[in-house]
Amino acid sequence: MRLRFILSETWSSLKRNVPMLLSVMLVTFISFLFIGASVLTQAQITKAKGDWYSKVEVVVWMCPDGTSQSVNCTAGTAATQTQINDLQKTIRNELADDVSQITFVSKEDFYNDTFLKQYPNGEYQGRTLTADDMQDSLWLKLKNPEKYQVVSEVLSGKEGVDTVSDQRQIFEPVFAVLNRATIATAALAAVMVVVAIMLTGTTIRMSAASRRTETEIMRLVGASNWTIRLPFILEGAIASMVGSLLSCVTLSALVKVFITDWLATSVKWIPYVNQMTVLWISPILVAGAVLLSVVASTVSLHRYLKA
User: Fold this and answer.
1) Rama region for 270: left / alpha / beta (φ>0; ψ in -120 to 50; rest)
2) How far apart are CA 249 and CA 245, in angstroms?
3) Which of 14, 238, 261, 275 is most buried, taking the most CB atoms under 10 A from its CB?
4) pTM of the predicted model, to two decimals?
5) Could you give the strand order of the β-sheet that contains 58-62, starting from the edge strand earlier in sequence?
6) How many Å separate Cα 140 from the centre of its chain?
7) Under a CB-based contact definition with an 8 Å cutoff, are residues 293 and 32 in contact?
């Protein structure tokens, strides 16, 4: 009987306060849409980092023939095979815990397999280059990409080494922009969440005020505080749940249209978030929206419906 009464009162309250409940749903929808977008952006960054960082390598460029700015290449001649072999021994002995694989790439192989693929005619900055203009190199796969500085410090001063470069430097600016976008989205989402909490509390308090006579009668006949308050709390929770569900549906549609059907088909070398990612965060968004609504309603009603 008590459960039936509470559900009946909740349904009655929902029908009476449709405009205000729609405003709660709308603010919750916008707030958790921004929160979901922020989470998806960070998930995209994490996914891209995990994939790219597992593939990028540290490249040790050996001294070329001719001039070089490196103090290790003052002789003006290319690194000898002995220097290359010694460097490989150093890597195996001193960096065994950091380097998982060493690949030697001769200047001829680099020219044919890499340079000509990027510049088919061999033309670069107005010059036609040949294999003799390239450099021998060692390509190192790291066990932990974050240990680049350790590898660089050990190898930079070795004889025959021109420069040590990390391919991560290509991606760091992109990640920096995405991280700033995540922070901006999260900040806006936080503001919207505060607005949603205030609006939910105000709406529930107004709903209680419009039924003050009924609540007074319920209190006189011995109804407990929770029996009086629970319909109002459920009212706000339902409105917030619907708004958060709409935000999840919108996120799913945005991922499908802009990522799955567009970006993933045009730029295929990047791993993207997908519908499974949306499904993973959706319960968190819905639970968070309901929890915030319950807290806001409880606090508001506690101040208004004091026993």
Assistant:
1) beta
2) 6
3) 238
4) 0.65
5) 99-105, 137-142, 58-62, 161-166
6) 28
7) no
